[in-house]
Design goal:
Number of strands: 8
Helix content: 40-55%
Number of domains: 2
Distance between the termini: 8 Å
CATH class of the largest domain: Alpha Beta
CATH architecture of the largest domain: 3-Layer(aba) Sandwich
Shape: globular
Largest sheet: 6 strands, parallel
Structural class: alpha/beta
Strand order of the largest sheet: 5-4-1-6-7-8
Length: 213
């Protein structure tokens, strides 16, 4: 019996792409580098913001220069992360429906922990039981450490939970944690990527999730 659903955040619960793209280009412009398109930033998302900026910046920059540009990105994003971000349609009713059924919900994301907790509080409030982001690079998915922290917080076993996400990184994270992964097709990767990565099943709308639990 499923007692908990652990969600990815970006591309799964929230459409954060425009705010991330704005922060990336603010940092690139401030450091004198070429800007990136929205579609490029979409492809760069999934492995955390450090990897996002590594992909967005030229490959041959020094560590000191990367650190300078990343600091600009981080400062801007934490101040503007709700300017354009929105909840995907159907997510709030889904979280309420799961809560009504006694199923706990949590978020495990590769975003900075401060960003994760801030966004989850602003957009979901008490609908989520807990939320974990990255506080050290070693915690970044597909490392399942924060999935295990969420399971411990929720008081459920891995056999009683599923992981829901929109990328191959989410599928790998679920596999590493021993959870079934349900892929969502409204996010930042296509169906073929999710299926080839090994997602157990796919859903096209949030309303389809309860029937799979």
């Amino acid at each position: 019996m499923i007692k908990a659903v652990i969600f990815d955040l970006d591309g799964t619960l929230l459409d954060t792409l425009d705010d991330l793209a704005a922060a990336v280009n603010h940092a690139l412009q401030s450091c004198g580098y070429p800007l990136r398109t929205r579609d490029e930033v979409r492809r760069f998302i999934g492995n955390g913001v450090v990897k996002l900026m590594q992909r967005a910046m030229p490959a041959d920059v020094s560590q000191a220069e990367f650190d300078r540009c990343f600091a600009s990105f981080r400062s801007y994003y934490l101040s503007h992360m709700t300017d354009l971000t929105r909840v995907f349609p159907g997510i709030l009713p889904l979280l309420q429906a799961l809560r009504d059924r006694g199923i706990q919900t949590a978020v495990v994301s590769n975003k900075l922990h401060a960003g994760v907790t801030g966004l989850c509080e602003d957009y979901f409030g008490s609908l989520l039981s807990c939320a974990f982001g990255v506080q050290a690079e070693s915690e970044r998915k597909p490392n399942p450490v924060n999935v295990f922290r969420a399971l411990e917080h929720l008081g459920v076993k891995k056999e009683q939970a599923v992981y829901v996400g929109d990328s191959e990184v989410d599928v790998q994270t679920a596999q590493n944690a021993g959870l079934r992964c349900i892929g969502v097709t409204w996010g930042y990767r296509d169906r073929e990527t999710l299926l080839s990565s090994g997602a157990a099943s796919l859903i096209d709308t949030p309303q389809q999730l309860p029937d799979l639990l």
